[in-house]
């Protein structure tokens, strides 16, 4: 159903992940028993690392798609390119 509304499954996954990570950050910062450095470590482990992985994965997927499109363009240009005219005179 999300796809029908214009969202890809990747966008839905990223949005859900961001919401969950934001909720974990709130829980970590509300824990008054943790020290400041421990809160930073938790914040980094729960939010920054997974988000970086998501971004890297999406970038890799985009790079792969760009390579596929470049190959398709090269195939189309090669198939439609006229052969070089002959320079020989009869």
Q: What does the model show?
A:
It is a single chain. It is rod-shaped, with a radius of gyration of 25 Å. Helix 1 runs antiparallel to helix 2 (36-80). The chain has 2 helices and no strands. It is 74% helix and 0% strand. It has helices spanning 9-30, 36-80. With 90 residues, the protein is mostly helical. The chain has one domain (9-75). The chain crosses the membrane at residues 12-32, 38-57. Keywords: Membrane, Transmembrane, Transmembrane helix.
Keywords:
single chain, 90 residues
Short description:
With 90 residues, the protein is an all-alpha fold. Helix content is 74%, strand content 0%.
Helix content: over 70%
Gyration radius (Cα, Å) is 25 Å
Tell me the fraction of residues in β-strands, as a range.
under 5%
Number of beta strands: 0
Give the SSE map.
Layout: H1 9-30, H2 36-80
Helix pairs in contact: 1-2
């Amino acid at each position: 159903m999300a796809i029908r509304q214009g969202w890809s499954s990747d966008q839905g996954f990223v949005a859900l992940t961001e919401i969950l990570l934001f909720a974990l950050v709130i829980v970590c910062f509300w824990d008054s028993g943790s020290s400041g450095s421990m809160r930073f470590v938790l914040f980094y482990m729960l939010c920054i690392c997974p988000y970086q992985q998501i971004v890297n994965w999406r970038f890799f997927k985009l790079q792969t798609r760009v390579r596929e499109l470049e190959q398709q363009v090269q195939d189309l240009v090669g198939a439609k390119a006229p052969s070089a005219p002959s320079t020989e005179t009869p």
